[in-house]
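User: Hi! I'm working on a homework problem where we have to compare a predicted structure to a textbook description. Could you give me the structure for the chain below?
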Amino acid sequence: MKATGFFLGGVFVVLIGWPLIGMIFEIYGFFLLFRGFFPVVIGFIRRVPVLGSLLNLPGIRSFVDKVGESNNMV
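Assistant: Happy to help. Predicted structure tokens:
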């Protein structure tokens, strides 16, 4: 409910004329909605030859590991 509320609230805020604030709400709602799917996407991208090597670079690897770990049992 929280994720859907933020996403649809962001759409409403964009429609009433505050596009920057609305887009921030939409992005936050999008991440909340699909956070369970991100580990699957990260795992797939790591298997792609060029993109996988980019995700293993030192600065990017720690960020991708945090995004790619799954803490909730959905």
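For your comparison, note the following. The two ends are 15 Å apart (CA to CA). The CA atoms of residues 7 and 30 lie 6 Å apart. Good luck with the assignment!
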